[in-house]
Each structure stands twice: as structure tokens, then as C-alpha cells.
Design a protein that fits this description.
7-stranded mixed β-sheet; 4-stranded antiparallel β-sheet; 58% strand; globular
């Protein structure tokens, strides 16, 4: 079992920045991939970015060049630095980790609201 606690969401004006954090606890030694997803009201949850244990990153086209994912393996924490925020980035952001076994765990979500 892995527990995930997210923080860093909030209200920001368009063009602003936010940094999300997601701290993992529990069976952390089997965590492989860490990532962020988001779900806007009325939409399906969508992938935002992922990072491997070795630091290889991938981004959705809609956030590439504006968002940066990083992780601190010593602190079992993944971050999402979001710059140049747009109103369409408004969503609940969820942290997810994938274990070596293939199991996945989700965080509880943190609200990000970008005003125009």
C-alpha cells in the first residue's frame, strides 16, 4: 500500500505559476513511475506528465514547455511546476504512482483554478 498526499493547489491569475507536491508513504521502495493527471469539470481525467525513477520525463502536448515535473527519490515526492497558467488549466490535479508490480495508486486531488 502507498499513501499519497498532495498540496500546492489554489487560485492564480492567468500567466501565473503554481507548484504542486505529492508525498508518498508506505511501500515506497516499489514505486516506479510517478505522474500527474487532471480532471476538469465535465471532462474525463487526462494525463499531464510522468517521470521515471531515473528521471525520464514525458508531457502532454497541452502543457509541454510550461509545466515541469520532477521528483526527489530521497523524499519520495514528485513535483509539478506550472508556469504560464491558462484558464483551461483549471482542474483537479491528481498524483499517481505506479509500482513495479503494475499496481497504481492515486492521490486525493488538489484544485487548481486559473482566472482570466
Amino acid at each position: 500500500q502507498v499513501q499519497l498526499v498532495e498540496s500546492g493547489g489554489g487560485l492564480v491569475q492567468a500567466g501565473g505559476s503554481l507548484r504542486l507536491s505529492c508525498a508518498a508513504s508506505g511501500n515506497i521502495f516499489s514505486i516506479n513511475l510517478m505522474g500527474w493527471y487532471r480532471q476538469a469539470a465535465g471532462n474525463q481525467r487526462e494525463w499531464v506528465a510522468t517521470i521515471t525513477r531515473g528521471g525520464i520525463t514525458n508531457y502532454a502536448a497541452s502543457v509541454k514547455g510550461r509545466f515541469t515535473i520532477s521528483r526527489d527519490n530521497a523524499k519520495n515526492t514528485v513535483y509539478l511546476q506550472m508556469n504560464g497558467l491558462k484558464p483551461e488549466d483549471t482542474a483537479i490535479y491528481y498524483c499517481k504512482v505506479n509500482m513495479n508490480s503494475g499496481l497504481g495508486y492515486w492521490g486525493q486531488g488538489t484544485q487548481v483554478t486559473v482566472s482570466s
